[in-house]
Amino acid sequence: MLQAYRALKRNGVIGINERNVNYVGALNKRKLFVTVDDKLVTKRLAESVNIPTPELYGVIANARDMKKLPEMINHPDGFVVKPAQGSQGKGILVVDRPLKGGWRLASGRRIAIDVLKFQINNILSGMYSLGGQSDKALLEYRVKFDDVFGKVSYKGVPDIRVIVLKGIPVFAMLRLPTAESDGKANLHKGGVGVGIDMATGLTQQAMQFDQLIDLHPDTAHPLENIQAPFWDDILSMAARSYDVTGLGYIGVDVVLDQEKGPLLLELNARPGISIQIANRRGMRFVLEKAANLASAKLSTEERVAIAKTL
Questions:
Q1: 10 Å Cβ neighbour count for 131?
Q2: Would 278 disulfide with which of 77, 173, 209, 299, CB 3.0-4.6 Å?
């Protein structure tokens, strides 16, 4: 056990305690957590500096707002319902389109209006929120993901997670939905994480449940050497997210829409460390280099250029 620990340390692998103390605790002021823990606050901050996000159709904060629900969901291309303060994809409903008096979910299941209202009431009660506090339900545009990832996705929408340290993107991975994860790009539920080369935007190795894999478990398609489109734009969005939140260590989640291009999905002040497995590389040495190079004087373009050299 001691030998394994020393080997991980030599290779720059950081653990949860090191992440919490040296990065989350040291670089993220507690009072700023609201900028990422509340998705509505995140969305408004991003829009104020022209970082594109999925269009917001409406917010339900209490029972009175439920009267506006028919208007909010009147979209033939579907919509998404999510808790403003949820985590790990809990409580999210992705509605594909209307279907015979109800709606068809992305998973293929049909739901009626009563089921939708029940889900929203659960969100308001805090069932899915951080700490269990009362919450708001956001209804927004359903992302139509870019076909570039079509062969390595199961039903849901893939996203790209970028770790940013003091405005410099340092690590990235593509997160893919699977049957195991019920069509959600959630690694905790069985989604696939694929490392991305920071310089080129090309996918590399992959993992599921922290085990290395080469093929998508459902489509059997190779996961390496897929080019992430708009790579410079994605890195730029990630770098600018630091400016609007003031948080020195964040995870930036971006989705690729086939019509609108890259959209900021959400931010995370406590990003997980399994991105190291997806990239088969420890984070410590890269984080240390980025910390030494970071400066408030750097432009977004300069931060992106540094990201490609780390």
A1: 8
A2: 173
